[in-house]
């Protein structure tokens, strides 16, 4: 019999959502599902904007005509979308359309990017953060993993480690803590990466939620970042595309890595990797993404983001008034809530679930330094936030 990739046995975290579902199923034997308030969701709560649905419908109809036939698209995405992204977000930063690679999700690219690097590379991973980084690193067979704790005493930001680290995952605004790195903190990381010839994988899934003026909207605003960083952005949370799948990776041509005694362009390698392993993103989806970049699309998605942010603010204020210590929720839809009276993440999760019929996510599911916190999400509706606060108040 063939053997499996033994790295599966080294995966550290249990899949937290199955545990949560088990607990909800047990509770649902006595409580009806519609009495539950779900503040755990990291997924959109508002419908797609009409300009995007119209663009996608038209694209499908176009494909049904002889003149509009479309087969395989380019593995790095259609030029119309790469140009529109460059013109919408990157003119001042001088990122060109051929430095942009369209993909079906950050999740895909931020895990596949490891293909470009030697198995001997050390990998720095914040804790708590989005779990895919650690799982993908372990599955790739890498063993030199450096944990970058995001502690309350450091406002939950990861700091460069004392030891050199080759590859560094950074997520800002971070999921789950909801906090975003300001210009100084990012500059610190870029300088560290330049000094150690490291590469930063910058997950910018929540860029659209940034509202603080000192938080950069791209890592490439930091001098030197084009020589040491790859940025990953998505239409998932910014334009409600979680169910459609469209994202993009910005890989500057200036970024190099060593191959024996030569320096090779990572841009060329990623192009090669994508051409081999990807057949691109569906044409109608890319047309829908394009529509969100038009002025009308931009103002419609901004209105959606603003409503999520307003909900995050209301939820955070309400929780603070109830005496809970809360973080995030300013540049992010997530609020990071400290458990009261020294309870563990799971104890507070259970209490909220059983007594308030409220679903959160235990912070420890995002890493061991998430212990003592739970994550609330503002991807919901205002009525549910009001009800959740009333129920917590009765605790
Ligand atoms: N990165 C972070 C930090 C996320 O929170 C998520 C989804 O929740 C993703 C990436 C996945 O993004 P995508 O839908 O583009 O794959």
Give structural notes.
The protein is 37% helix and 15% strand. It is an alpha/beta fold and 395 residues long. The chain is globular, with a radius of gyration of 21 Å. The model has no long low-confidence stretch (mean pLDDT 96). Residues 42, 105-107, 130, 171, 175, 203, 205, 234, 236, 242, 247 line the site of pyridoxal-5'-phosphate.
Distance from N terminus to C terminus (CA atoms, Å) equals 55 Å
State the share of residues found in helices, binned by percent. Answer: 25-40%
Biggest sheet character: 7 strands, mixed
Q: Extract low-pLDDT stretches.
A: none
Q: Mean pLDDT score, rounded? A: 96
Q: Quick one: overall form?
A: globular
Please count the beta strands (DSSP E, at least 2 residues each).
Answer: 15
Q: What's the helix-strand series?
A: HEHHEHEHEEHEEHEEEHHHEEHEEEH
Give the names of the bound compounds.
Answer: pyridoxal-5'-phosphate
If helices are DSSP runs of H or I spanning 4 or more residues, what is the number of helices?
12
Radius of gyration: 21 Å
Q: Which structural class do the helices and strands define?
A: alpha/beta
| Beta-strand residue fraction | 15-25%
Give the spatial strand order of the biggest sheet.
2-8-7-6-5-3-4
